[in-house]
Amino acid sequence: MALPDSVITCLSQPVHYAICKLGFEKKDTYDINNILSGNGEVCWQAVTEHVCYLESDQSVDYIKSIRSLGPVCESVNLYFKSLTKEQFVIQYASWFHWTNCTEVFLEVFDVLQYTQATEVALGLMKLTSCLERALGDVYLLKGNDCPFLLRDLLASEQLADVFGQAVMNVLRVFIGSPRGLNLRNVLWHGFASPQEIPAKYCAMLLFLTAGLGQLLQPYLLQTKSVLVHRPYVIFISLEELDAFPGKYLNDEILSIAEELVKLSSFVLKIMLPFWIAALTAFKQSRYADSVILLLPQLEAGLRLLFTTTNKCPNRLLTAESSALYTTFDEMLAKHLDNEEVNQLPVVLEEPAMESDFLWDFLNHQEGPRIRDRLSHGEINLETFPREVANQIVGFAVTILCRFSDEDMFSLKEHMVIKPLMNCASCYRSRFHPISRLKKQVLECMKSIHLWPELPTVPEEQVQKIKGLEGNAEANTLILMISEIISQLQHYMPQNCCSSDDPINSVLTERLLVELCDTRICTLYSPRPVLEVVVLLRKISAQCHQVSQQVIAGAGLRYTQWVNKTLRSRQRHNYRRMLTSIKFLSPVLKLILLLITLELVSVHSVCKKNPFDYQQYLKFLKSVLQYTENLVTYTSPEKNKWDETMELTKMTLIKIRKISDRKLMLIHLAM
């Protein structure tokens, strides 16, 4: 592994030159009054004159523009340093209101007064995040779907219509274009060290943001538009995120972490100030700041491992516009861009844990996607929850520990840090589609288990309905369910089926919990597996909706029965419903059991006969069609219980037939 001490920069030579030198080549002193009106407003025409264009196609000449804007940025920085906080607030605070993050921009002003490199970099990351979100809100004044990438947002016609193309070109010199300074990306992806980000660029972006507010106000008045701010993403079900409980992240373990960052081979020494600042922020309850600082450093550390193990040391550096950055997405992929196997998971001590955690918290669509949401301004920084910060800090401590010297073994076994390491080793994916399916199945089963508790009229008041209860058809349904359970028994834990009552002994929540607890590899799931999981999730979701409709409908009809507000036909239909759901309950439980058994064997289908697999997909789609019809028939608008039972009978016959032919996935897997 490359020695972290030997790395002096993660910026390639052209990028390092553009950020650290190009804007300092012109030594002219620029008069701030050239771009500042008497009342403190930005003179945009004077600013835009510093953007240069190529003669060939009139596109922005980024090299000349950065060189020309360098003295302007320095002048702005010195100007801000000359202001007191009170003067700045009076002059500029109102111009930041359009961002919905005024306090963040006021904090950036405070940071610029002291020019502490790490805090300037943090301020710039927060500024670009909030600015991007605000520009997206402006975009939606004229467009529908806001671009996900900042470079596409800044290049959009919609923003050019509001602010002017020349103004947008100024912004693109600083952020959004890989041919410009690209300050947002080099910071958020962990390429720039604190000392490589000139404070004057942070000051200039603060100045430009105020200037955008000055341009936006007359536009809104002229067009009679109202700028609507999209709501922030709110983390729900925080208990699902609790892989590293906060009780393990006390002052003692944070002190150990501060020692680890100085010794761990995972930490590039040029990035050490970021790590120290992140841990300090966490101790000060500045949870958003802590995570913003840590995420790029986790990426930088993993990039160091990735480039070393895959023998591509040049990928440690930023890339120019002609190539791609080496980011989390590629480092977590199964294969490299040349189709060779990615060696990073192989060298990790706990490859599944490391990758599963990162995929869960950064990539999976149903996960918190913390990096994306923070960097794109989707999260309220002031209310960022500690529960989320606990996970990133906890993970960071464990990975620091894993990549510390052998001499640190005693520290790894320290009674304070060992519980945290145990949390890491026990981690299982929570937001992979397979994991979400498990959760869906158990939630649906809990819902169906509520059916026996539903309010119902006394049995003697429910007249026997011809065609179902107490006749051959009912016995047929029960017999088919019992036969299918008998066929499935070979694929279930031993002693879970009672010969006296196979249905009630097998179709239990306890069995599903036990089956769902089976560890299934979620990392790099092949496409056929994901296709099956998508279908199973749809089936499970439909079953849950049926259960919810039954619960709601039974409660409503019972109340109407008691209050004697049901008409004759409605009373008959209610009786039919009460009778039908006695048989519908085990059928839905059976489907959930099938889903779970098939899920346990889901990876095997990819290795079997493709024809059988396609046949199985057809079967799954037919079960999905059944559950979709159930949703329709059991809805309050339809209440078609005769059709429900007839459809159920046909589906059970199909399940039994498919099972007999051994075309089900659980059979394919054997």
Could you describe the 3D structure shown?
The protein is mostly helical. It folds into three domains: 13-223, no CATH class; 238-426, no CATH class; 436-466 and 479-668, no CATH class. Helices cover 59% and strands 0% of the residues. Helix 26 runs parallel beside helix 28 (610-633).
Query: What is the H/E string?
Result: HHHHHHHHHHHHHHHHHHHHHHHHHHHHHH
For the record, give the distance between the C-alpha atoms at the N and C termini, rounded to a whole number: 42 Å
Sheet with most strands? none
* Uncertain segments: 465-470, 662-670
Count of individual beta strands: 0
Q: Indicate the mean pLDDT.
A: 88
Our count of helices gives 30
Q: Provide the gyration radius in Å.
A: 31 Å
Work out the count of structural domains.
3
Query: Considering DSSP H and I runs of 4 or more, what fraction of the residues is helical?
Result: 55-70%
- Find the structural class using helix and strand composition: mainly alpha
Beta-sheet strand percentage?
Answer: under 5%
Properties at a glance:
670 residues; mainly alpha; 3 domains; 30 helices; disordered C terminus
Short précis:
The protein is an all-alpha fold and 670 residues long. Helix content is 59%, strand content 0%.
Blueprint of the fold:
Layout: H1 13-20, H2 44-48, H3 62-82, H4 85-92, H5 102-114, H6 117-139, H7 150-154, H8 157-163, H9 165-174, H10 183-188, H11 199-223, H12 251-263, H13 272-283, H14 287-309, H15 328-331, H16 344-347, H17 351-363, H18 370-375, H19 386-402, H20 409-412, H21 418-425, H22 433-448, H23 472-488, H24 502-506, H25 509-516, H26 527-562, H27 568-600, H28 610-633, H29 641-660, H30 665-668
Helix pairs in contact: 3-11, 5-6, 5-11, 6-11, 8-9, 12-13, 13-14, 14-19, 22-25, 22-26, 22-27, 23-27, 23-29, 26-27, 26-28, 27-29, 28-29
